[in-house]
Amino acid sequence: MTFSWIKRTFGLPIIGPAIESAYGFDHPTLEREVFGVKFKNPVGLAAGFDKDAKVIDHMAKLGFGFIEIGTLTPKAQEGNPKPRLFRLPMDAGLINRMGFNNGGVEAAVKRLRERKSDIVVGGNIGKNKMTPNEDAEKDYLYCLEKLHPFVDYFVVNVSSPNTPNLRDLQEKEPLKRLLAAVKAANDAKTKPKPILLKIAPDLTQGQLDDIVEIVLETGIAGVIATNTTLNRDNLATATGQLTSIGAGGVSGKPLKDRSTEIIRYIAEKSGHKFPIIGVGGIFSASDALEKLEAGASLVQVYTGMIYEGPGLVKKIKKGLVRFYQNSSR
């Protein structure tokens, strides 16, 4: 319903510019250059909303600094059976078990060829459900090859909890091999694009240490922290309701503190040697600032926008500008 409404209204001659005027807000203090890419502002739309690159131009009118599409896989796949997305109002969170539902990378490329806005676009890539982990590299390389001319950076997603055994690719040796292969294929291009790794919030300290080591060793551009969590401790939602919902990753406010903790740990452990995009539980300017001060260079929203509405992006940007101006006095 949301996508249908966005596509029907945002592109209309009068309504489109009115939306852009109402939600747009730019300021020089918001501009960033991260991993060689220039951003008008540090607030992005996280992967998972516009999986198939259907509403990039429409969502750009809401004032995002960048939009991440995907997760895209080589072949189209339906994802997990519906229902697969659930609200947790008492926790200001969501549970999803989408399962990389998408129309395939080639269908997305056709839309990317036709997009009109110049907003920065990231391509989040994954493997098909039926592809065994030992062949996962082929899927990531296929998506890289198809998307390369049309996106500004790539995200290797090995952290979704909704594709069987996918998170096994976060283990040290498989991850090192995968990232090295993707990096090599990217480096062979005339104009290589930044490669980032999206990680889970459920990693141990030892695994996070491995992540830092692998990022530095392979020379990829940075990390996105974090994906959804399997941890359901301390949720206000009734246990019976959670049981009836079933499997899936939790996003939104229940993830906020853990994602910030991971950002801070990775930033300090790495000596701030690579950029981090912070995502997880951002519902306000203060939430975004918390991520940035923990060590993130950019932030992304998704669940916060579902609960707070499309005006959240402008509120965050205005709040950041106020903070920066007050700090410089």
From TrEMBL:
Assembly and interaction partners: Monomer.
Pathway it works in: Pyrimidine metabolism; UMP biosynthesis via de novo pathway; orotate from (S)-dihydroorotate (quinone route): step 1/1
Entry keyword set: Cell membrane, Flavoprotein, FMN, Membrane, Oxidoreductase, Pyrimidine biosynthesis
Top-level lineage group: Bacteria
Chain's role: Catalyzes the conversion of dihydroorotate to orotate with quinone as electron acceptor.
A GO BP annotation: 'de novo' pyrimidine nucleobase biosynthetic process
Compartments, as annotated in UniProt: Cell membrane; Membrane
CDD domains (alphabetical): DHOD_2_like
Recorded GO MF terms: dihydroorotate dehydrogenase (quinone) activity
Annotated binding of substrate, by residue: 51, 96-100, 157, 162, 227-228
Membrane topology field: Peripheral membrane protein
Signal peptide, first to last residue: none
Cofactor: binding comment: Binds 1 FMN per subunit.
Lineage: Bacteria, Pseudomonadati, Bacteroidota, Cytophagia, Cytophagales
GO cellular component: cytoplasm; plasma membrane
Gene expressing this chain: pyrD
Main location: membrane
Domain Dihydroorotate dehydrogenase catalytic: 30-322
HAMAP family per record: DHO_dh_type2
Residues annotated as catalytic: 160
EC number, as in UniProt: 1.3.5.2
UniProt-annotated binding residues for FMN: 47-51, 71, 124, 157, 198, 226, 252, 281, 302-303
Protein name: Dihydroorotate dehydrogenase (quinone)
